[in-house]
Write a structure and sequence with these properties.
Blueprint (H helix, E strand, L loop, with lengths): L2 H57 L4 H58 L9 H20 L1 E3 L12 E7 L8 E7 L2 E3 L2 E4 L1 E6 L1
Parallel strand pairs: 2-6
Antiparallel strand pairs: 1-4, 3-6, 4-5
Helix pairs in contact: 2-3
């Protein structure tokens, strides 16, 4: 082998070594690019799926069963509200009817109370110890206790200013000792039932 051939052979070996080095350097870069491409494709895939799912939800119609359930629930709620209103209205009407019935009964009992008071007022003081009179007095007090528990109360009249909402004037007198429009005497007691007048006081008014 002459000198020129030796030089050419060395150049060929050097070029082969350089080519091998370049191949070794390019191989990791190619692998890195291959690894990046699937990840980018994977990142695109969920996005496409999310877009499809979003569009799918938007276009999806409500299940007929769900619509029927909502309709029945709404109907039940309406019926419950109507029943609650009916119950309240019935209780109010029932209470009103009870009040009317109670007033009617009390109005019929008041004349009995008047007779007890007149009878006891006519008894002389020396006969108060009579067992019959004592029995009448106890019955009268018991009757008044029952009426009080029911909400019945007598109307104050004598010495009070005349009030047409509470008193019924059947007589007028002139009396300098009493002020103007003052009740001088009560002929018959008036009563209220739960702050409602069931009988006006029958009175005599001064001046």
């Amino acid at each position: 082998m002459n000198q020129e051939e030796a030089i050419q052979e060395e150049e060929l070996q050097r070029e082969a070594a350089e080519a091998q080095d370049e191949a070794v350097q390019e191989e990791p870069e190619a692998k890195a690019e291959e690894e990046q491409e699937p990840s980018s494709e994977a990142s695109k895939e969920p996005k496409e799926k999310s877009e499809k799912s979003f569009l799918g939800k938007k276009k999806k119609k409500k299940d007929p069963k769900d619509e029927k359930i909502e309709e029945l629930e709404d109907r039940v709620k309406r019926q419950m509200a109507e029943f609650d209103n009916f119950r309240k209205r019935t209780e109010k009407e029932k209470s009103h009817m009870y009040e009317i019935g109670a007033r009617d009964v009390i109005e019929k009992i008041l004349p009995v109370v008047d007779n007890f008071e007149r009878g006891l007022a006519a008894v002389p003081e020396e006969e108060r110890a009579n067992p019959v009179i004592e029995g009448m007095d106890k019955i009268y007090k018991q009757l008044m206790t029952v009426l009080t528990d029911l909400g019945v109360a007598p109307i104050e009249a004598a010495g009070q200013e005349f009030d047409p909402n509470l008193h019924n004037a059947v007589m007028h007198i002139e009396d300098e000792e009493l002020g103007e429009n003052i009740v001088a005497e009560e002929f018959q007691k008036g009563y209220t039932y739960k702050e409602t007048v069931i009988r006006h006081s029958m009175v005599k008014v001064a001046n």
